[in-house]
C-alpha cells in the first residue's frame, strides 16, 4: 500500500471514529437526563478544572496541549508528539482540533522544555483591515507629475509627494491600475490626460525601500507648522521603527511599522538608529537541493504561496532577449551579457550557466535585497551554490529533496498520468545520490518525496521548529 493510500484510509478511519464518539456522547447525555443525574465540579482541583452552576451549565474549560520532540537515532528525523488534555464537567461535548485553538480558551502549548511558545503558524498572516484594502480615487492626470514613483517588487510605489499632490495619494501607496487596466511601469502612468481613476493600496513592508530606522526622539507633526503637506499627520516616540521612503536635506517621508497607514514627514535632524529586519527562523536563506524531477521547484512554489510574508525568492538574470508576454522583473531581469560576465569576475554571482549561447544566473545582490526585506530567501539552487552561500552572511538552511528508492519510485510513477522511462527514473536517483555525496556535510535536512503534500508538510514542520528550538551552526557564522 502506498503512503497516499494509507493516509486516505487513516483519514477515513478517523472520520468513522469521530462519528462513533459523537453517537456515544449523545447516548450518555440522554441516559443522564433520563436518570436525572448531574455532575458537580470540584473547584479546588488543579489547572484542569471546570466549574458549573446548579443547572449544570459550563462556566470554564481548560485545554492543555503537550508537545514533545524526539530525534530518531537511526534516521536523524525529528518526531513530534502532541497530546491534548481536556477536562469537562458539563453534559456538552465537542471535538477540539490539535492544530487550532479551543473555542473558549487559547491552548497552552508546551514544548519538551519548560518554556511556553505562542508562535502563530507559518501560514497565519494578519487580517486585512479596511484601511489596507484597495481603494479607487479619481484624479487629474496632471497630479501624477507631482509624485515620485519607484518600482519595488514589480509594483509602482509612491515614494514622494509634494504640496500640490492629490490628498488621496500618500507615500507608500502602490498604484495597481489606471482606469481598470493593470500598470507595471512608470511609462504606464505618463502622458495621461484628463481625469483618470486610480486603484491604489498601501505597499507591503517588503514592497517598499528597505530603509528602516528606530526613532530615539519624540516628534509630533501637529505642533510643527513648518512641515510640508499639512494634511499628513504623524507622531513618533522613542522605540518606534519607521520605513524611510524618500529623503532630502531637511525632510524625509516615512511610515510607521505596525500601522502602515500612518505616513508623513519627519525632520532629518531627528536622532535615529539604522536597523535591519530579521526573519523569525534564525536563518537567512532556504536552499532546496535536488535533481531535476524530484519536485523541489513545486515545493518552493507552494511555500511562497503559503506565506509570502515570511518567504520570498529572487528574479534570475539572463542575457537573452525579452520574449512576448514576459515582463521585466517578473520572469527574468534582462541584462547585457557583459554585465553578467563582469559580476562573475567580481564574485557577485551565486550560480550561473549557459544555454543556447545565453547566460542565466542568480546574483548575490538580489539575494541580499530579499534578506534585507526581513524574509527568508528561498532558492532552488544547484549544488555549487551551497559553497557560495554557506557562510555567516547568508546563513542557509539546506534541504535535499530526493526520490524514494528506485523500486518504489517506479511503482509511484506507474500511477502518474505521464510516465517517465525507467532510464529517466534511474538517472534522477543517480543524480540525487551524487548531490548527497557532494554536499553531505552541508545538508541539514533530507526529504524523501513520495507525496508532494506530505513532503511539503514535513518541510513546514521543520521550519516551524527553527523558531523555537536551539540551533547549532558553524562557529564561524557567529564571529
UniProtKB/TrEMBL annotation:
Residues 44-53 have a biased composition (Low complexity). Residues 31-43 have a biased composition (Basic and acidic residues). Residues 283-464 form the Guanylate kinase-like domain. SMART domains: GuKc. PROSITE patterns: GUANYLATE_KINASE_1, GUANYLATE_KINASE_2. One of its GO terms (biological process) is cell junction organization. It holds the Pfam family Guanylate_kin. It comes from the Eukaryota. One of its GO terms (cellular component) is plasma membrane. Residues 31-61 are annotated as: Disordered. This is Guanylate kinase-like domain-containing protein.
